[in-house]
Write a structure and sequence with these properties.
140 residues, mainly alpha, 3 domains
């Protein structure tokens, strides 16, 4: 940027932005005018929008990969639960309409145990999908 002839511009900034500008200039030990000049030049440069677009593309790619991973984990969780539920339904007798209080209490106790084990696994960070990933890695 040329340091020769300059044209004076007067503009107003919101108080927060003005404080940020002053703080940044103080930390970098440069004038506020030079920061504004560099920012305007960067904003108006023809490749500025291309750099911004490339940064957004990288960020969107990263988000897309994270969503793919999340989708995989949700699918694993759903499949694991469906296998568990299928097995549970196969081994659990259907309660009769006139089930006794003891049978209902036993069913409730088993459900409470399931919830307790699930909560414990979630608290410890143990995940079925982690184990599946380790199995997949040993196959490669």
């Amino acid at each position: 940027m040329s340091k020769g002839n300059r044209i004076k511009h007067t503009f107003r900034l919101p108080p927060d932005l003005s404080r940020q500008l002053a703080d940044y200039a103080g930390r970098k030990r440069v004038s506020q005018a030079s920061i504004v000049e560099a920012a305007v030049a960067s904003f108006l440069s023809p490749d500025g929008s291309e750099r911004l677009e490339a940064a957004f593309a990288r960020r969107l790619d990263r988000i897309s990969r994270q969503l793919d991973k999340l989708d995989y984990h949700v699918e694993v969780g759903n499949e694991a639960f469906s296998l568990y539920l299928k097995r549970w339904l196969a081994v659990t007798p259907t309660p009769l309409n006139g089930a006794s209080a003891a049978e209902r209490a036993e069913a409730e106790k088993r459900f409470d145990f399931f919830i307790e084990v699930l909560a414990r696994r979630l608290e410890t960070g143990l995940r079925l999908s982690d184990g599946l990933l380790r199995i997949d890695e040993t196959r490669d």
